[in-house]
Amino acid sequence: MVDVEADGPIPGDYSMLSLGAVLVTPELDQTFFAQFRPISEQFIPQALAVSRYSREETLSFPEPAGEMQRFTDWLKEVCPDRPIFISDNNGFDWMFVCWYFHHFLGENPFGHSSQNLGSLYKGLAKDVFVNFKHLRVTPHTHHPVDDAKGNAEALLEMKGMGLKIRF
């Protein structure tokens, strides 16, 4: 389960500021966190405010290439098979993670596919108007590890409701 915080709506013109990931197991005890130095002079103050970082703080974050390599190394350590990218809003999160992997490392360990947690729940409930967010336990704080953990908790609840997924 992956979550990102960014200072704007698209990668390249704007920057991913932090990334959190949780390996989905019943224990939810294997997590990853990274912060990224901005890659662009552009940022939207309202988007930056969601992350609770100042622009000055973000300028001291590590370079993206090294952090993406650290994420790759963590994925290899915790996922013996090909990892599956799942997030709450995969249209947003995937866009940044995929772009950063290809831009900085030349490949994406997740391949070319991602899964949207909300869509999984809608299919399980057979209702396109339902929302899974009531299944979270961990509060949604906009810290990417907290948010990924809450989403992983929701996925575990969905498994208990009959979603076929292997861990």
UniProtKB/TrEMBL annotation:
Keywords carried by this UniProt record: Exonuclease, Hydrolase, Nuclease
Any keyword Nuclease? yes
Membrane keyword on record: no
Species source reads: Haliscomenobacter hydrossis (strain ATCC 27775 / DSM 1100 / LMG 10767 / O)
**Protein known as:** Exonuclease RNase T and DNA polymerase III
Superkingdom of this protein's organism: Bacteria
InterPro entries in the record: RNaseH-like_sf (IPR012337), RNaseH_sf (IPR036397)
| GO molecular function term, any single one | exonuclease activity
